[in-house]
Amino acid sequence: MRVIFHEAFHDSDYSEEAHDSAADPGRLVGVMDALRNEGRYEVEVPAPATRAQLLLAHTEAHVSAVEAKPRLFAQASLAAGASILAAELAMRGTPTFACVRPPGHHASRGSAWGHCTFSNVALAVLALRDAGLIRSAFVVDFDQHTGDGTADVLRGWAGAQVLNPYGDDASDYLRVLQERLEQAPQVDVLAVSAGFDAYVHDRGGKLQTDDYFTIGRLLQGYAIRLGHQRRFAVLEGGYYLPDLGKNVLAFCRGFE
Ligand SMILES: [Zn+2]
After folding, report:
1. In this structure, which residues have their CB less than 5 angstroms from ion ligand 1?
2. 195 CA to centre of ligand 1 in angstroms
3. pLDDT, tens digit (0-9, with 9 covering 90-100), for 111-129
4. What residues does 162 pair with on adjacent strands?
């Protein structure tokens, strides 16, 4: 298991949104402390995605609009590059977690909302496809909110499926996830939008820390059943900062 992280992701002044909780100062400090204190996860430093890579997922107009905001462009293209690196390492057999911001699952081809800029996870699987490394991908998004951007970017690619599990409570949620993973297709890579805002003290008010371990373990089990074990995850939401680090760590312990 490797963690993809750049110190620039600690910068919180990239966003021009009025209320951007993904850009809260210090949001990733507890996460990286928890992952580093675990002592077993090597950290890799990413490079920004190239403009050509961004255009795999986005329109010229959207990329240009973000470029007009240099701070946002720098951080968002670095988040996209981190996701691509996570995907590339996954293809070599190393499970990865990219600890990034801005998140990406509300970024569509031509626009973005909800604290997102570029469609990190969708872009990463498209980069793998463009490199001839995969022909199919399964995306699981366990953020509290539906990954509308991911679905938009991957629309039209028959080899890509996106799952946003839903459940009334934690046990229902985990049961649905397990059932859907048992029926999930044979694919070349598993990509995960890892959002932690369904947490009991966060917006969703539903999942406990242990549930994030279970989610990670269910996803790991699916990747093992695929045979090749290729899997990577990218941070999306998660706004209850006192417990974000332990929730991410619980997920990684299950997913690794
Ligand atoms: Zn969310």
Report:
1. 143-145, 195, 197, 237
2. 6
3. 999 999 999 999 999 999 9
4. 139
Which CA distances in Å does 117 have to 38, 104, 109, 154? 30, 6, 10, 16
| Distance separating alpha carbons of residues 241 and 239, to the nearest angstrom | 6
- Taking the C-alpha atoms of residue 1 and residue 15, their distance in angstroms, rounded to an integer, is 30
Cα distance between residue 237 and residue 102, in whole Å: 9
Query: What are the structural domains, with CATH classification, of the chain?
Result: 2-255 (3.40.800.20)
Buried/exposed code over 23-58 (b: 16+ C-beta within 10 A; e: otherwise): beeebbebbbebbeeeeebeebebebbeeebbebbb
Distance CA 11, CA 134 (A): 33
Tell me which DSSP letter residue 223 carries. Answer: H
pLDDT tens track for 54-96: 999 999 999 999 999 999 999 999 999 999 999 999 999 999 9
The token duo for 254 is 């299950």
Q: Give the global pTM.
A: 0.98
Edge-to-edge strand list for the sheet holding 2-4: 42-44, 2-4, 96-98, 231-235, 190-194, 137-141, 160-163
How far does the centroid of ligand 1 lie from the alpha carbon of residue 227, in Å?
31
| Tokens read off for 157 | 């690619």
Determine phi and psi for 172, rounding to 5 degrees.
-65, -45
pLDDT digits over 171-226, tens only? 999 999 999 999 999 999 999 999 999 999 999 999 999 999 999 999 999 999 99
